[in-house]
């Protein structure tokens, strides 16, 4: 192993030791909760409203929230899978 590779490996181990590679669980859960509020709130607003413009905005908000939930869950799942192989 070259000197640069050994230095990189030592740096990587130091990052792991300090916990800098771990994802902050509280922030991830807060983001997921906000995404769920957007998704479900948009659906509730769509059902409660009779205005076409409000309904269109509600569908947009619900769609953004749903995409965010899917992206958040997919990314966290992939991150967990990658971290478990170490």
> Which oligomeric form is depicted?
single chain
Largest sheet report: none
Low-confidence stretches: none
Alpha-beta content class: mainly alpha
- What form results from the Cα inertia axes? rod-shaped
The total count of helices amounts to 3
Assign a percent range to the helix content: over 70%
Please give the number of β-strands. Answer: 0
Whole-angstrom Rg:
20 Å
Beta-strand portion reads under 5%
> What is the average of the pLDDT values?
85
Give the N-terminus to C-terminus distance in angstroms.
20 Å
Q: Can you write the helix and strand succession as a string?
A: HHH
Work out the count of structural domains: 1
Can you give a write-up of this model?
The mean pLDDT is 85. Helix 2 packs antiparallel against helix 3. With 86 residues, the protein is an all-alpha fold. It is built from 3 helices and no strands. The protein has one domain. It starts with a helix and ends with a helix.
């Amino acid at each position: 192993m070259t000197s640069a590779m050994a230095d990189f490996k030592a740096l990587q181990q130091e990052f792991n030791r300090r916990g800098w590679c771990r994802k902050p669980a509280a922030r991830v859960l807060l983001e997921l909760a906000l995404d769920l509020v957007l998704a479900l709130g948009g659906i509730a607003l769509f059902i409660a409203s009779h205005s076409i413009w409000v309904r269109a905005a509600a569908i947009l908000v619900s769609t953004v929230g749903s995409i965010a939930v899917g992206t958040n869950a997919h990314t966290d799942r992939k991150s967990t899978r990658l971290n478990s192989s170490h």
